[in-house]
Amino acid sequence: xxxxxxxxxxxxxxxxxxxxxxxxxxxxxxxQPDRPKGRGREVAASPVKLFAASKSIDVNxxxxxxxxxxxxxxxxxxxxxxxxxxxxIPQSIIDIPPHGIVNVHASLLPKYRGAAPIQRAIANGExxxxxxxxxxxxxxxxxxxxxxxxxxxxREETSVELSPRLSALGAELLIETLNGLVSGAIQPQPQxxxxxxxxxxxxxxxxxxxxxxxxxxxxxxxxxxxxxxxCYTSFRDRTLHILGCRPSDEVLVGQPGSxxxxxxxxxxxxxxxxTLEILELQLEGRRRALAADFLNGQRVGENEVLGGRR
Length: 310
What we know:
7-stranded mixed sheet, alpha/beta, single chain, 8 helices, 15 strands, elongated
């Protein structure tokens, strides 16, 4: 099919590559404008732009997709595909392609509608997730479902590890969906709005550890909130980033946030009499370190308590 592709993050690269491999005519790619990134705030192109350019596909980066409606119409696409583009598509553009606009969303809709479905699923302790292809409408991930595919989330899997697996799964599901739409084999099904949950964009403050949560809850959030906003607390008025942790059977006596060093291992009391072991961490102004190395340079006192805003 003659196809226009709208996508921005790394997650959207595999589906685009699969469209090319399957022989679809990708006439143009639309992605977000180059933005400052990283500590140096250097302007960087999106992963989709870099990939599309390497394949000599025409790349467009409008600030607002509605501003290029006439251009999209002039390309006469049979279908459009959206994967993590980063903007709501207006109805006037949805109406352009005869086969509509297909979206690849990284959840089993209607669960986790929104910008951060992978992170939210892990942070909430889900054991399974998947991808959904849906027909775009004017709402936020509310369109009719076309197809779904599930997979299991590893017990210690992070969002950084899960994302490429879901991207690959979504790429295959997208091709099945495109083929099914052409053949008429797919019957769109409306979502059950009463089962819907939301996955809003992450905020920096969500990475701050609330030690009154259980160790498992903190562990899940630490896995889900990688690479940003991460999982952090404070240690003697300095930010302490928790880079690796796990729930422990160690028994501690103390208020939530109380830190204890035992045999070069670092444990923290959490809510409901649970314990978290910190495996890897980074103190503000220092390099990342394993807990044992951190404890070699930092003596943890008997009444040491982590937490609190700086």
